[in-house]
Amino acid sequence: MPLRSSRLARLLPAVLLVTACSAGAQPRPAALAPGDRPTLLVFVTVDQLGSDYLERYGGNLTGGLARLRDEGATWMRGRHDHAIAETAPGHASTMSGRFPVHTGIASNSQGVNTTASPLIGSDDLGASPFRFLGTTLYDWMASADPRTRALSVSRKDRGAILPIGRAKVDVYWYGSNGVFTTSRYYRDTLPGWVRAFNAQRAPQSFAGRVWTPLLPDDRYAEPDSNALEAGGRDYTFPHRLPTDPDGAASAIRDTPWIDSLTLAFALDGTRALGLGTVPGRTDLLAVSLSATDAVGHKYGPDSKEIHDQILRVDRYLGAFLDELEARVGRGRVIVALTADHGVAPLPEWRSPYYANHDAQRVDTRGAWRAAYAAMRAAGVDTSAVVDDDGFRVLDLTPFERRGVDPDAIASVWVNALRPLNGVLRAALLRDLARGDTITDDVARRWMHMLPVGGDVRAVVTLEPFGYFQPVTYATHGQLHDHDTQVPIIFWGPGIARGRRAGEARVVDMAPTLAALLGVRPLEALDGHALPLRP
Ligand SMILES: [Zn+2]
Question: Does a cis peptide bond (omega within 30 degrees of 0) precede residue 238?
Answer without folding.
Answer: yes
